[in-house]
Specification:
Oligomer: heterodimer
Strand content of chain B: 15-25%
Strand order of the largest sheet of chain A: 3-4-5
Number of strands of chain B: 5
Largest sheet of chain B: 5 strands, mixed
Strand content of chain A: 5-15%
Number of strands of chain A: 5
Structural class of chain A: mainly alpha
Radius of gyration of chain B: 18 Å
Helix content of chain B: 40-55%
Distance between the termini of chain B: 52 Å
Order of helices and strands of chain B: HHEHEHEEEH
Order of helices and strands of chain A: HHHHEEHHHHHEEHE
Helix content of chain A: 55-70%
Distance between the termini of chain A: 28 Å
Shape of chain B: elongated
Number of helices of chain A: 10
């Protein structure tokens, strides 16, 4: 069997991919600035601590995307005959597990601080000779942690859909929704300002739920993909009709009596088989070669297809 | 009127600046308010030269600081001497507003009490956890009267 050629994105997507990589580098730089800033002002606020850890976890998808994008397009070889596309799925799973675990930890940690009725002590800080309550500075830090994040998220979202890249999509989607957690933390600190000690832990609890929820959703998607389910769209999670499209296409070929297909996702691309019951007196090898070429040009996502002539299709 | 969600934090900051000029933050247990009415109750651990309780009177530079802090805010002070763990326990129950006695900023009590900013880069006062108004008032005094002397 010959190994497939190294995968190349179609021209119109190459610059989108480069743009996505650039945006992920920007994301990392931005998140590092946020993490440092939040750490400096977090004091003993539970909500700030939770929001801080959430932002730190936000580095994971960006880093795993950049690592995977270096590996995924390597040429298939003797050792890895199917290529390296699963690099995306694997880094996605790793990130999802980390996020889920962090969500669990934060939920427990915040619940404990609420149950123990921890009263967060927040003092003052002197900036340029002026004394300010640290709580107000925390809120400013949270603004920095939320607004740019939403903008970057919205920029990444369409790229993720076009590139059919799940890490990028979840990353963009979480960032886009980041203002809700920052907003919760702001409310918590404002509550503190009004003397409601529980507002802080309550906000932290809310943020923990949101982290846990993100972790759970990602974990589910990552596992389902690694289980080779029917390919789905990254945004709606509905079956990709590309698969049905190929089935229709193959069935329309003259030499085909009837045909069935199955595909699975590996990172951004699909691998699969086409089972064909040919008409009698067909030059099968010639037609199969022709068919493979046709399918390879059908859509960039259809990466590797095997055509298998069979006597009859088994019942499903 | 339609408000864009992404712009909400901006309105929020605007509202905050309004709040910041008011009387915030508040104390969950109104320690500052009570101190204004009933006087500031300060627990003193004997630790010369910061605090000296040996001769039934209270002296030491931390006693002076607290006396000045109280008079600058026109509130009465009463001192109570005792050992660290008893006084901290009273502080946790909000029976005291402050515990002093040359506590270092790395004090082991930081889990049970709130720490003020160090008044000499090293030593802190302990306040009940979460009583942020009291803390802000205290640090305001430290900032205006003690930190500036150094610079």
């Amino acid at each position: 069997m010959k190994n497939p050629e190294a995968f190349e994105l179609p021209e119109h997507l190459v610059n989108k991919f480069e743009k996505a990589k650039k945006l992920e580098w920007i994301t990392i730089a931005y998140l590092v600035s946020t993490i440092v800033l939040m750490y400096l002002v977090m004091g003993s606020s539970q909500a700030m601590k939770t929001a801080w850890l959430e932002d730190a976890m936000g580095l994971l998808p960006a880093i795993s995307f950049l690592i995977a994008s270096r590996i995924a397009y390597k040429k298939p070889n003797y050792k890895f005959p199917y290529g390296y596309h699963r690099a995306f799925s694997i880094s996605y799973l790793a990130g999802a597990i980390a996020l889920f675990a962090m969500g669990c930890f934060l939920l427990i940690d915040s619940s404990i601080s609420l149950i123990k009725a921890e009263h967060p002590t927040i003092g003052t800080i002197v900036i340029f000779g002026h004394q300010l309550w640290l709580g107000w500075i925390m809120i400013l830090a949270l603004v920095w942690a939320s607004l740019p994040s939403v903008v970057i998220g919205y920029k990444k979202l369409p790229l993720a859909k076009k590139l059919h890249n799940k890490i990028l999509y979840t990353d963009a989607n979480t960032q886009k929704a980041d203002y809700t957690t920052a907003f919760a933390a702001m409310l918590g600190i404002t509550g503190l300002a009004f003397g409601l000690w529980w507002a802080d832990s309550a906000a932290a609890l809310f943020i923990s739920f949101s982290v846990l929820n993100d972790g759970y959703t990602n974990l589910k998607t990552a596992v389902l993909d690694l289980m080779d389910r029917h390919p789905v769209h990254v945004d709606t999670q509905e079956n990709d009709d590309l698969v049905e499209g190929i089935k229709g296409k193959v069935n329309s070929w003259e030499w085909v009596k009837e045909a069935d297909v199955r595909f699975r996702e590996q990172g951004q691309v699909y691998f699969g088989e086409v089972f064909i019951v040919p008409h009698q007196n067909t030059d099968i090898t010639k037609e199969v070669e022709k068919g493979l070429k046709l399918l390879q040009n059908y859509h960039w996502k259809i990466y590797q297809v095997t055509i298998m002539p069979v006597k009859s299709l088994s019942e499903k | 009127m339609k408000i864009k969600l992404t712009k909400l934090p901006i309105y929020f900051i605007g509202a905050l600046l309004l709040f910041a000029s008011c009387n915030l933050p508040k104390d969950p247990n109104s320690s500052w308010q009570k101190a204004q009415k009933e006087g500031l109750k300060v627990g003193v651990v004997d630790n010369p030269p910061f605090t000296n309780t040996a001769s039934d009177s209270f002296s030491g530079n931390e006693i002076e600081i607290i006396n000045k802090f109280a008079s600058s805010n026109k509130i009465e002070v009463s001192f109570l001497k005792g050992n660290e763990s008893d006084l901290i326990e009273k502080l946790e129950k909000f029976e005291l507003d402050m515990v002093i006695g040359g506590f270092n900023k790395k004090t082991v009590w930081s889990k049970k009490a709130g720490l003020s900013r160090p008044y000499d880069k090293e030593h802190v006062f302990l306040v009940p956890k979460g009583e942020n108004k009291l803390l802000v008032k205290l640090e305001e005094y430290i900032h205006k009267n003690l930190e500036n002397e150094k610079s």
